[in-house]
Write a structure and sequence with these properties.
With 449 residues, the protein is an all-alpha fold. The longest helix is centred in the middle third of the chain and has 33 residues. The chain is globular. It starts with a helix and ends with a helix. The relative contact order is 0.13.
Amino acid sequence: MTRPAPLAQRAWLTVGILFFAGILSIIDRSAINLLVDPLKADLGITDEQIGLLQGLAFGLFYACMGVPMGMAADRFSRRNLIAFGITVWSLATIGSGLAQSFGELFAARLLVGFGEAALSPAAISLIADLFVPERRGRPIAVFMTGQGLANGIAISVTGVILTAAAAGAFAGLPVIGGLAAWSLAFLLFGSAGLIVAALLLILSSEPARGTVQTGPRRAPGAEELHYFWRNRTVLLPLYFGFAICFTVAYGASAWAPTMLMRGYGASPAFLAAWLGPMAMAFSAIGPLIGGTMLDRSMKGGKPMARFAILTFTPLFAIPSVLAVMAGEVHVAAFLVASSAAVFSVVGTVMLATLQSVVPPHMRGSAVSLTLVMNTLLGAALGPLLVASLTQRVLGDDAQVGWAIAIVCLPCLAVASLLYALARRRMRAALASGETECARLLAAEAQARA
């Protein structure tokens, strides 16, 4: 069954708006990574406080509100919930630009995380009801692609704004003419979000929901907790491997632009012209590589191949965390950008693996748990560890590149070892047939053979 052309066009229009919302969510989250030194100079804060702003301030509400926002998306208008979330994080981004102290900026970043927690659960649910099952793949991929490209876009756009501000492009303009460049960047990004929220309310509508579950409901989370506990020997190393791997992803990406500026003398214009586009290219390549490897492994009847991919892929990020040793700014920028492909492969394969080792009605919960763990461990801990090592141990802001290497190299090794442990335990479980996740993986392999 296909939808009438006007309805299909309206559905794709909604996907387009969600695509831009996803891009803005990442920009508002990560623009601070290019504003480290201007923020330090104007607000008198330290690298360690910047690490808190990059990680804990954003991640606290983002992680804690993910599940409640998902439940809200199941009960209320998803369009309105997304518009509410965009409005909250956009106003908070504007508030970030107006902040006069660390405390004010910390509070604004908390609200950015609160608003952004509404986007993904509600957007995926909304798209699922805008398209029939056999046509959902492309629109979901479009939405996810926007988020994948957004970090590179954030680097380029923020670099352009900083370069233009330094050249006096905004001088003399009413309201914004006298603002610092970092403040102006936050205000422009926040204002763009308000426009996207308005477009969503004006141009889209809430579709009818799909089949609603009937019958008695179990206590929320009880069945999921029991399943995860029964299969903990495989699932625990999987989840912790993912979270520790993304401690590197968040920690290195948060400080890599600053490392290039402090260690190699890179300018915002250089980051906009080189690092941003390269990061976008690698972000686009990564999911294609991960998806291709997954498809080939399944066609070849090798369900354990995905565990091998997870075991070895984190090690390919080692060159990126050693970019401080590159010796030349273009080479260093290339190495930094290459990590986007590595972590995209890890993310693609990890999420696909979870879909295969948990029952269908627990897949949302399985993915939500990665959000919580990756945010609380990865986003909150990664940037702070790099900042603390730079400030308290190395004692030199210019050594931030070495702090990235010291923090991230062991994490990559531990992540690889945890995935190797999950691989060994899953192999044993397949041989014995005792655990549910092993039986699900085996059944999927047989069905696709």
